[in-house]
Design brief:
Blueprint: H1 4-20, H2 27-31, H3 41-62, H4 104-124, E1 133-136, E2 140-143, H5 144-167, H6 169-172
């Protein structure tokens, strides 16, 4: 079983890769939704930020939900980007982007803030995160460590989407932003 510290490290690596995929994106490319695509880069980032914030909220509520001894556990190894392929659509409105981040800088700042808040909470709690659990609306009950692993897997799941959007002809033609920087 993965411990909380390793789950946090995995989440940090996932978020770092996600941020790296946004290096050099211009604000024009940020907002563009290429033909045939469900979301723009901005909308994809917003969705991930909303999910990370929801995970942090779940973690804060988790401490009031001890898992009974012998409770059925979700398999840590099943918490990966691949888990989303067979999951079907998310419930309507769950993590749906609404255009909150007009610029790449706003989106990057929100990703960094959501990551930092989740990591600070996880590192700061003295509770045994394996001893508490709450249901996910699609996947079933996760314990606290699994919620962190889920945040990493969810971020990883959207990384190919960012890369595909970046490679899309309409976005590639806009060229890179030479002034990019991030946290």
């Amino acid at each position: 079983m993965i411990d909380a510290a390793n789950a946090v490290a995995r989440f940090e690596r996932s978020t770092r890769s996600f941020l790296d995929a946004l290096d050099g994106v211009s604000d024009r490319a940020w907002r563009l939704r290429p033909a045939g695509e469900a979301w723009s880069l901005a909308e994809t980032v917003e969705h991930v930020v909303l999910a990370d914030r929801s995970v942090r909220t779940a973690l804060q509520q988790l401490l009031a939900a001890p898992l009974p001894a012998g409770a059925t556990r979700f398999d840590d190894a099943a918490i990966s980007a691949g888990m989303f392929e067979a999951a079907g659509p998310a419930p309507p409105g769950l993590g749906e982007p609404k255009g909150r981040f007009a610029t790449r800088a706003e989106g990057i700042a929100a990703v960094v803030e959501a990551r930092d808040e989740l990591v600070a909470w996880a590192r700061g709690t003295p509770a045994d995160l394996r001893a508490h659990g709450l249901p996910h609306p699609v996947f079933g009950v996760f314990d606290g460590v699994q919620w962190i692993l889920f945040a990493a897997a969810h971020t990883d799941n959207h990384l190919p989407q960012l890369r595909a959007l970046r490679a899309h002809r309409e976005i590639a033609l806009l060229g890179p932003d030479r002034s990019s920087g991030r946290g």
